[in-house]
């Protein structure tokens, strides 16, 4: 156990990332932040409705992305020392040219402050499939020196005369936020309201929602990313994150944070494991990073900026009308960050009578029994690429990423392997 911790700390230092977690202990530490969550800097315990200062709430902030012609600003909430959450739609609509390189997240300060760099981002798996109303997580380029980062707490298990508020960023440059007192709305009442007002659009319903409405206040409309928070025992907890609302005094839906929390914890725990996204039968994308959160889906422009290698092979066969299979081994190494590895196969000649599209599959080769393969993140990982086809095809691999220069991987692996007996080779599942 001690040894595992040492590695975690080592990696934390070397990658500037504290969250490569091997044990529950580390995870718990991260989420609860040693009980230091949900603080505010107000000298009084009364919360006034109306205008407040962002400096009071260190977990409230914005993501700023300066594009060529425009400066985009989106609300975020800090939920762990390295993760802020935002509305998936808000993040998705931002152009993705150098998104990570140019974006900054400013927390508990006005936007004239420099902010923290963005390491990566990822959408909840619901996004685009079940609903547009879901969360995006943004991983910050934080390190062990940034002890001033103070996330909001997860919702408490038991409510003790809670007071709900919604906080929205009013004017980021002038440090102002808006605070509304809220009342909880029963889910049935909420549904009825949306049906009656014809705002009941299937794809806009979050998978998990809480409903609340503003008690008082001027006419207003929630912007997405409004934080539904509660204060209990002098601590602030995040209950929900707003989606575009019909009007502050109408029942409004918020993404229920407690239901998304496991996804966030998993995203942190799975750092270092590869992900495979199937784009089509003949197109697969593999990613693997030792320090970034897992991502799925097509490569964004920033992920394909640095080429590691490419390969293009023509496989001549047929026409035999019999299915052929070709198998390649593909190994990803721990000294490289694979932001996107694209596997594609297509017919060498385009002909109308080619009915059967070629099919590509990635299979994991596990060098050790499963528990080690899936929990241990430093080893190289082997894949078998299988291609099924009838006519001549072209097989293409394009790997993008960067070399990891900060860490002496050999030394580290040597030390780690000294503790592990080398188990026999077994074939892993897909
Ligand atoms: C981690 O937590 C899970 C569920 O919370 C539990 O089943 C498991 O035994 C824990 N593992 C360790 C090493 O504590
Ligand atoms: C913005 O923040 C900076 C540094 O925290 C501070 O010096 C400045 O006065 C703030 N501006 C406003 C308008 O509050
Ligand atoms: C792929 O790797 C496995 C295990 O290391 C090996 O048994 C197999 O022969 C390799 N296949 C090819 C085509 O190199």
Automatic annotation (TrEMBL):
Signal peptide: 1-19
Record's keyword terms, sorted: Disulfide bond, Signal
SMART domains in the cross-refs: Tryp_SPc (SM00020)
Superkingdom of this protein's organism: Eukaryota
Peptidase S1 domain sequence ranges: 47-269
Xref: Pfam families: Trypsin
SUPFAM superfamilies: Trypsin-like serine proteases
InterPro entries per the UniProt record, alphabetical: Peptidase_S1_PA (IPR009003), Peptidase_S1_PA_chymotrypsin (IPR043504), Ser/Thr_Proteases_Immune/Dev (IPR051487), Trypsin_dom (IPR001254)
Keyword Disulfide bond: yes
GO molecular function: serine-type endopeptidase activity
GO biological process: proteolysis
Entry keyword annotation includes Disulfide bond: yes
Family designation: Belongs to the peptidase S1 family. CLIP subfamily.
Annotated protein name in UniProt: Peptidase S1 domain-containing protein
Organism this protein belongs to: Euphydryas editha
